[in-house]
Amino acid sequence: MYHRFCLLLSILVPLLTSGQSANFVPCSEISPELRFPCKCALGPVEKQLDGNPSLSVNCDNTVFPYDAFVLPYGAPVTNFSQKWAGYQSLPNQLFASSLPLRSIDLSGNSLRKLTERMLQAVSTSLTELKLAENLLGDTLNPIFSTSEFRGLKNMRLLDLQGNGIKAIEEGIFEGCDSLEELYLDKNEFITVPSTSLNGPKALKVLSLSNNNIDSIKLKSFTSQSSLEMVDLNNNLISSIESGAFSNLQKIRVLRLSRNRLAKFNSDIFYGAENLVRLDLSENFIIDFPTIALKGFDNLRQLNLSSNLIQNLDNNNLVYLSNLYDLDLSRNNLANIVPGTFLGLKQLKKLDLSVNSLRTVEDDAFEGLDNLEHLNLKDNNILLIPASALGRLPRLTSLQMDYNRIAALSGDILRSVADKVTHLVISTNVVRELPGTTFQYFKNLISLDLRRNLIVNLNSDSFVGLEETLQGLYLSQNRIMSLSGNTLALRKLQKLDLSDNHLTELPGTSFNLLYSLKNLNLSHNIHLTNIHDNLLHELVKLEVLDVSYCGLKAISSELFLKSNSLKEVYLNHNSLSEIVDNLFVNMPNLTVIDLSYNNISSIKQSAFAFIMNIKVLNLRGNQLTSFKGEYFNTGTSLEILDISENQLSYLFPSSFRIHPRLKKILAGKNKFNFFPAELIANLQFLEYIDLSFNELKTIDELDFARLPRLRSLVLRNNSLETLSEMAFHNSTQLQILDLSNNKLERLGERTFEGLIRLKNLNLENNNLVDLPENVFERARLQMLENINLSKNKFDIPPLKALQKQYFFLDSVDLSHNNIVDIPPEDGIMVNIKKLDLSYNPLSQQAVDNIFSEPKTVRVLNLAGTGTSEVSRLETPFLKKLNLSNNNISSLMDKTFERTTLLEDLDLSGNELFSISGYSSIWRFLRDLKSLNISNNPIEFISSDDFTGLSKLRHFSLHSLSECTKIEKSAFKSVGNLVALDVYDYPKLGYLDVNGLLQNMPLLEKLNIETKDAAIGKDQLQSVLHPRLKELGISGGRLRSVSSGTFSGIKGSDIIIRLTNTSVTSLPPALFFPLPRSSKATLDVTGNQLTTLGTQLLATLEDRRGDLKVIGLETNPVVCDCNSRALRRWLSSHMATVRCVGPPYLAGKLLVEIGDDELTCDPNKMISPTTTKSTTLTGSTRLQKKTTEPEIIWSMPVTEKQQPKIKTASTGQSTLNNDDTLIIGIVGGVVAFIAILIIVICIIRLRMSSNQYRGPVSAGSIVAPGMIGSGSSCACSIKGAPQGSASATALYAIPPSYAATLPHKVPVHQGAIRVPTYSTMGRGPYYQQSNVQPYFIAAYPSDEKIYR
């Protein structure tokens, strides 16, 4: 067999190897001897393999019968991978086939030990052994011990990541003389395993990231003098002893990011002076570690990002003259002192992003003669620092996104034009690109102008870039059209015009983009048509994205010349039909996405001659049929998505023409049967989703004999019966989801012929029992996880489950009617995860559970009604959920044997005191998560949590009887990363600042305040770059300072301001947050009556990056102050309802017109009708109001509404005569007012003092209005002197003043009174010859934090 196998390989060598390794293909296509559902790849021919090519075999997620002979004996298999296959021991057949294995990857299995002497069969050839994400540390012995690594003298790499190992036996690696790389990440080490590393002398890479190491002791690496890279990222290291890195003369890379380092001694890195790369990011460093870095003559890369550094000068960097890469991003730098970088002559890359620079001095970068990459992202810089950048002669990449740059021109950019190849100015406030803006650029390859305010795109703007520019990014601007000549960027390969306001594209728009490969026009919702010849000149186009537009039809001419096209995205449009030959003769096309249109018809041969198609997405349409005749020839289709349509039947030819289908998604249709012949011949099928249909039965052989089928999803149908042969011999079926159906019973042979069921989900059916032999090993070899929750079990089906006792890992029997659990020994043996929550268990049953499943790791008994917890006889237990029971106290002996417990949930019980529980915590030294919320605990003292030093997640909210929490209550849990302390109705005071001291690692905090105001001072200790979630609540809270969030610099942030008495949010609330951060603000349950215009302007400025939720739970008052909010809501949320005034209560704010949103009490009488008094005949008096359009430019002060006196009876006392007199007087007053306004306008037009030049922040005045120095002393009624006259309608932030149009022309002709609107909103732009009024206001005196 060996010679025949090698002969077959030698025939295929010329076909599959031509100097490069072949891609993975089904093994049977390489050799008929490889008859198993794996992928194989041939490598180069090797002499040591008798002139045969090496063979790599990938059997990930693949299982074999125990008696199967997997690989041909002696086959030249050098690399073998079988991850996530459920192995609990090393596979015998792999090591008994005399294979020349060099690399073995068995990661993601359930290996708890290594079979003795198994690895000796490959000891001479094995060079890489990967055993990550197994269970090698899941034992009572805290020290991992094995002799299987000894003697693997050629092994160079060993991966033991994610095994839960706490310590390693000394001498475990003896004999591993060639070991160079050792990966011990994601384990439970508390110290560097120094003595365990004494064996291998050639070790170069040691990775210990994501452990619990809190310090590095003296001579931790003394036995490993050959180390070149040490990774200690994401530990708890707060101290490093002097000499810890001694004897590491060869070390080049040291990673210490995401620890607790704050200060450094001068000799902290003694012995590691030859470092080339040092990573100290995401620590708590306040001062630059100048002295500690003094001895690094060879340091090339230094990362200090995400720290708390505030100052930087030349003295800090004087010893780092050979530095190439310096990262200082996400610190608190406010300025760059001139001369800071004078000594960094070799520096090539400098990252100063997400700081607070604002301005850059002319000589800030002096000395950086070799700098090539400069990142100034998100610093609130207003102008491009041309002079400073002009002193960087080698600058090739400049990144200035997320700043406030308003103007670009050729002169401004000239200083950087010579060398720059990549320019990023996205997310600024650029409104226009003047002609020849980039004329001086000679080498620009990529230009990023995304998320600005550009309205018009003129080809003249890109003069000078015709022969260099390859990438142009203009998404999320306001471009309405392409004007000027056709874009003539002949080298352009990628053009992104997505998310603009394009309405039409002329057919010649891209005719001169000869090299274009990627065109993105998505999210232009007004683009309803594409010209037939738009793409005809783009002969090299490979990717086209026109998704999320308004397309209603596409002509068959569009892709006529697009032979190079590989991917087409037309999803989320309004297409109703796919016409004949739309996709025809496109040999390179691999992806077509037509999802979420209104397609109800696909014409014959719509997809003609597209043999290489891989993905077709038709999800979310109106299809009632899907035929194979749409394709006139066989395809290579692998993924087909026809879900969320109206399909009730499929033709026999539907899938036959796609023999290589791997994935079929057909959920959310109307199928009531699914014939077996549809998929019977699909030998490569791996995944089927038929969820949310109307299937009532699965017939015999419907999903049988599919050799590669791994996942079958049938949830949310109406299944009542399953044929006993439905899945017969689909040997690779491992995930079967039958949840949310109507099954009442299962046949004994239902799972016959299956090898391994990794997940069997039977949740929410009508099962009352399981056949005793349904999981018989002769029928089903392995069952690992089963979900039987929400059924009708009165007695747990333990006898059926016992058949799989050796493999069964997880059993979920929650939400049933189980009362008793028998006390028999061994009835639940070997179960690792057991969920019996929300069953009416008897106390005896609970006691039986606590004493019986000795090997259980996760136990959930929530909501079972238990009132006491006896001694737990579960020594392996790591997670215990006892929430929502009646437990009032715990005994000291309860956790004596559960010393490995890591997660304990006691929430929702009757615990009234935890004083003295330190005697319990002493048994739980490894506890990482504790929840005691919703208990009637009365008092929390400083000693209540002594012994919980490893606790990382702590929740103690909703303590209804708590009256006191001591300031030092959390002194023993300084390693917390998540803390919930809120909802204490009886607590008089909570010292927020005191409680949060000494918890610098917090990443998630939800806390209640009893103060009336909250600011930065109370939260100072947790406002750092690692904070991801901050929640503040408290009914007494009425005010939030603008600087409350100052210091948070994470890239993704969740802020909760919930259940307070706050009525308004400060306009500058989000100013301290980096503009580049993705932020979510939850304002649920407050007393907000509206959102101020300044705050809305901020939300608009951060469009897409700042999201507000929960506003609908606030008492929004729909008056004149809510006009701007109404406009903003229309594109963000539509569920906000009014609580006042009474006549608008209950209405959706977005459905109310501006005329109804008024602060005039006279208009608050009726929402729809206007009462008028008849004087004589048909004569009526109608009150006319004229309101100029006003746009406020500065923050607004609250205006007191005048009190209206009304008669006690509520009836009007005015008669007709009174009304007539009032009308006459009102008419006279109105006439005088109009006359004064006309005189003012005439005098202004006669004046030569017309406005010219840009508008300055804080004094924005439109032509025709009264500006500074005007002789016309007009005022608006009710305005206090020296202040704004009324509440702002829609504010313009001060920093945006410079982005307004440079010159506003004066329109001649009759004066027209505009209707109310706001800047940038619909009604304003729909009116011609209407100019807005800008009212100048004094700037707010509120402090600005950054």
Strand content: 15-25%
Gyration radius, rounded: 36 Å
Enumerate the spans where pLDDT stays under 50 for 5 or more consecutive residues.
1-5, 10-21, 1167-1216, 1248-1346
User: How many beta-strand runs?
Assistant: 64
Please tell me the overall pLDDT. 85
- Shape from CA axes? globular
Helix content: under 10%
Q: Given the helix and strand composition, which structural class is it?
A: mainly beta
User: N-to-C terminal Cα separation, in Å?
Assistant: 74 Å
Number of helices: 14
Strand count, sense and barrel status of the largest sheet are: 46 strands, mixed
Notes on the structure:
Helix 3 (314-317) links the parallel strand 17 and strand 18. The strands form 10 sheets. The protein has a 46-stranded mixed beta sheet, covered by helices on one side. The protein has a two-stranded parallel sheet with strand order 7-9. Strands 12-14 form a two-stranded parallel sheet. It is globular and about 105 Å long. It has a domain at 1188-1197 and 1254-1346. The chain is mainly β. The chain is built from 14 helices and 64 strands. Helix content is 8%, strand content 16%. The chain crosses the membrane at residues 1220-1242.
Secondary-structure blueprint:
Elements: H1 2-16, E1 25-26, E2 39-46, E3 52-58, E4 77-81, H2 92-95, E5 103-105, E6 128-130, E7 143-144, E8 157-159, E9 167-168, E10 181-183, E11 205-207, E12 215-216, E13 229-231, E14 239-240, E15 253-255, E16 277-279, E17 301-303, H3 314-317, E18 325-327, E19 349-351, E20 373-375, H4 386-389, E21 397-399, H5 410-413, E22 422-424, E23 446-448, E24 456-458, E25 471-473, E26 481-483, E27 494-496, E28 518-520, E29 543-545, E30 567-569, E31 577-578, E32 583-584, E33 591-593, E34 601-602, E35 607-608, E36 615-617, E37 639-641, E38 663-665, E39 687-689, E40 697-698, E41 711-713, E42 721-722, E43 735-737, E44 754-761, E45 780-787, H6 798-802, E46 810-812, E47 833-835, H7 843-851, E48 858-860, E49 879-881, E50 903-905, H8 918-921, E51 929-931, E52 939-940, E53 953-955, E54 964-965, E55 978-981, H9 992-995, E56 1004-1008, E57 1013-1014, H10 1016-1019, E58 1029-1034, E59 1039-1040, E60 1052-1060, E61 1078-1082, H11 1093-1101, E62 1106-1109, H12 1123-1129, E63 1190-1192, H13 1216-1246, H14 1322-1326, E64 1333-1335
Parallel strand pairs: 3-4, 4-5, 5-6, 6-8, 7-9, 8-10, 10-11, 11-13, 12-14, 13-15, 15-16, 16-17, 17-18, 18-19, 19-20, 20-21, 21-22, 22-23, 23-25, 24-26, 25-27, 27-28, 28-29, 29-30, 30-33, 31-34, 32-35, 33-36, 36-37, 37-38, 38-39, 39-41, 40-42, 41-43, 43-44, 44-45, 45-46, 46-47, 47-48, 48-49, ...
Antiparallel strand pairs: 1-2, 2-3
